[in-house]
Amino acid sequence: MKTLVLGAGAVGGYYGGRLVEAGADVTFLVRPARAELLRKNGLKIVSESGNFEGKNLKIIESADSHYDLIILTCKAWDLDNAMNSIAPAVGPTSAVLPLLNGMSHLAKMKDKFGAQRVIGGLCIISSTLDSDGTILHLNDKHGIKYGELDGPATDRINAIDEMFKPAICVSKKSDEIIADMWEKWVMISSLAALTTLFGASIGEIASSPYGDKIAEEIYKECLAIANAHGFKPSEAFGERLRDKSSTLKASMCRDMENNNPIEADQIIGDLVRKAEDKNVSVPYLETVYCNLKVYELKRAAQIKD
């Protein structure tokens, strides 16, 4: 399977690197600066599950041929640019697998590439880039799921599954990928809501007055939205939001600490809109969304100055 991975950062570089390590035919589509670094130093992964260093990778800075599978790893706020970058790689039989947060990207991608080319996907991983471009895998979670948006596995999903099987990650094909994506959305939105609201880790919030109560209410709101739309995510993650020993923060919280762009609309804003569609009351999430948009306004003013 001829595979193109957009990006070689903390997510694309990790899963793409694991596929290369397993012998898959993988090409990385990256920006010039990242391309130069990869050609010079190779792709490096540091992980409890095993380190990897790949040299002589297939690297391109623009696509000019079709691929069987295109794995899209970008921040949701950069989706339009990402879709334009991969457009020349999308052929009549190509499958595009997005590993983005939230759900709003699916409609945009269907409009751009056609519904038959877009499949569902998600990943659960905590990883980051070191100053020299090394991918640091921060815990033992590195799951990835993929599946057709409207039914059971097809030949192309089975082919993707076969490609991932020998790779060092926890891969799984799913016959209910939309439900899986909702479950992840509830997890990441509750984590992002809580840690961005206070600018603190789960443990710090849980150890503060009313922290555990606020965490519970935020999680209940996220679950209520999913339930209203016909999905029943597991409620187990709620316990992790009240763990006083946890150092966990959402990546959005880290982005705010570093004054970076954030996925406010795609993770929290779209969830609030889903609540409005079903008349679900979500006062905590509305507060969180307001806080995130204030951050974006202040950041935009700083950049303008």
Work out the radius of gyration.
19 Å
The overall strand count is: 10
Category from helices, strands and their pairing: alpha/beta
As a percent range, the share of helical residues equals: 40-55%
End-to-end gap: 48 Å
Q: Specify the overall morphology.
A: globular
Proportion of β residues? 15-25%
Which stretches are low in confidence, meaning pLDDT under 50 for 5 or more residues running?
A: none
Report the average pLDDT across residues: 96
| Pattern of helices and strands | EHEHEEEEHEHEEHEHHHHHHH
Spatial strand order of the main sheet:
5-2-1-6-7
Largest sheet: 5 strands, parallel
Tally of contiguous helical segments: 12
What is the topological layout?
Layout: E1 2-6, H1 12-21, E2 25-29, H2 32-41, E3 43-46, E4 52-54, E5 58-60, E6 67-72, H3 79-86, E7 90-98, H4 105-113, E8 120-129, E9 135-147, H5 155-164, E10 170-173, H6 177-198, H7 202-206, H8 211-228, H9 237-240, H10 251-257, H11 264-277, H12 283-304
Parallel strand pairs: 1-2, 1-6, 2-5, 3-9, 6-7, 9-10
Antiparallel strand pairs: 3-4, 8-9
Helix pairs in contact: 6-8, 6-12, 8-11, 11-12
